[in-house]
Amino acid sequence: MLEDNWIPDWNEVFEFPLTVPELALLRIEVHEYDMSEKDDFGGQTCLPVWELRQGIRVVPLHNQDGVKCRSVKLLVRLEFV
Asked: Ramachandran region of residue 50, left (φ > 0), alpha (ψ -120 to 50) or beta?
């Protein structure tokens, strides 16, 4: 992610081996890291893997209290192999 940028572009691929997909959860937590200041929490979500579908998806994020953030979402591309 680019520093000091709340429009992040990770361009990374993450691979997760699953033993029991029916019980697996994908937890995503977003932070904005500064070199000189405190890290800023951007949002979080926890998704049951069995509900995920391939393709481009919009994932809403929640604040630290679990309340859905109105204006913060992730655009993710999911691919299963």
From this structure: alpha
How many percent of the chain have pLDDT more than 90?
A: 43
- 31 and 41 in contact (C-beta within 8 Å)? yes
Predicted TM-score of the model (pTM): 0.74
Rounded-to-integer distance, Cα 29 and Cα 19, Å: 23
35 Cα distance to chain centroid? 22
Catalogue all structural domains in the chain, each as residue range(s) with its CATH number. Answer: 21-78 (2.60.40.150)
Average per-residue pLDDT for the chain: 85
User: Residue 40 in 3-state DSSP?
Assistant: strand
Name the β-bridge partners of 26: 47
